[in-house]
Amino acid sequence: MRPKKILFLAIAVSAMVSGCKKSFLETEPSERLSTLQYRNAVKQDPSLNVATLRGLYTAMYTDGIGGTTADDDFGQKGIDIYTDMLCSDMVLGGLNYGWYADLTEYTATINFTTNENYIPWRYFYRLIYGANNIIDGIVDTDPSLENELNKAIMGQAKAMRAYAYFYLSQLYIPEYGDGSTKVLPIYSTAKGEGNHPKSTTKEVYDLVISDLTEAVNLLTGAAARTGKEQVDVNVAKGLLCYALGARGTPADWAQIVTLTQDIIDEYPATSPAATVLLPGQTVAANPAAGFYDVNTPSWMWGVDVTKAMGVGLLSFWGQVDYFSYSYASAGDYKNIDNGLWAAMRPDDIRRLQFRASNPQMPWYKFFDPGRKAQGQAQPFTTDLLYMRSDEFYLLNAEAKARTGQDLAAVGVLENFLGGGKRLTDVGYLTGLSGQPLLNEIYFQTRAELWGEGKSYLAMKRNKATTKRGNNHLSFAGQTFAYNDPKLTFSIPQAEILNNPNLDK
Question: Which Pfam families does this chain map to (predicted)?
């Protein structure tokens, strides 16, 4: 295992990795097609779009995709760890190797030279460039989308571009505000790339919501996907829910009620058996338990990891799971905030996902089923989770509460928590309304989705203030508002150096 080395971005290489140039998205230009070459190649062989789309999905779990050799650079699940730590629900429990130390100490986000600011920027703009190439290629060859395969590919490419811009909007923008603040460069085509200035928050959200709305339309009725790593209509609806919720107009929340209900009608909630391996229970006695199997019925979007993929130490499992060859098993524990854990009711089975004593690792939630310390050797085969239905049961309750349907929102919570056997007694929910009801839904979102990268999105959506528990190594007991600069990433140095139009 490697100690962390802060990799400052040298001016000598920054031209290659600038976020506002094609070269930013091409670390090996000699091995990639130029935009013009790509379009010409697609005209000769339309199946190239399929391969490029597959590459986008692969990029989501590829180590180094954020342009560094750092052990926290491995795509979406790396971002999920970042965000759970920024909102303080995930605790870094050791400093033996130094990964995440600057992030949890809130020194990384406010220093534009650090990898932590650079990795997400580089990762998401690479996805945007790839998605744009697919979109442009289809527009050039089948503008009316007469081919059903092209229609499905376009829907997925639009969803992937929107997914990337949505996360950029969450990570690099403190809040939506009035929408007029200039925040991020928008690239809606790979043609004629150049240095773009910042667009406004409204313009970014308009693109995201437009792309996802179109993706839903294009993917409705499409042929079934061949694997859960691919975006389908329900994943696109889920992403649209998040984007609408982040913008948060009354019309947005009304639409979320409908979209989340569509998802709920398609997917069951995670069963009690799958939610936790009870302490003392064996995997053989409860094979459904644990968040490591993409075939879990509630999983909507995730990756069926195989040995051939080469997923190892530089991964979610390599950072979080005590039962894999990991930093967590070597002393750099990833624990639940003990204030959050203590706030769970005594009858809440999700309390049992974590060790009751320090370190409060997710021993009974995220684990290799062999359950031996460092037992899962590289390459790993435990699967990766991006999205599950439970997110939308909770968002459905939140949307109903925000549209004046408090009684219906309480009913959703009662069914999810009580009917879902997470709690044995849900009587305390009766009569909740207004802000106390929204607070309860926010808390249940954090409790349900710990370690899955969704608490940060909920924090910003709820404009919440978080308080660190006393098991944090820094700022224990202190509070931070959702729009504190320390909780939002800075546009990285490479972008600022190489984009003279950024602030025009």
Answer: SusD-like_3, SusD_RagB
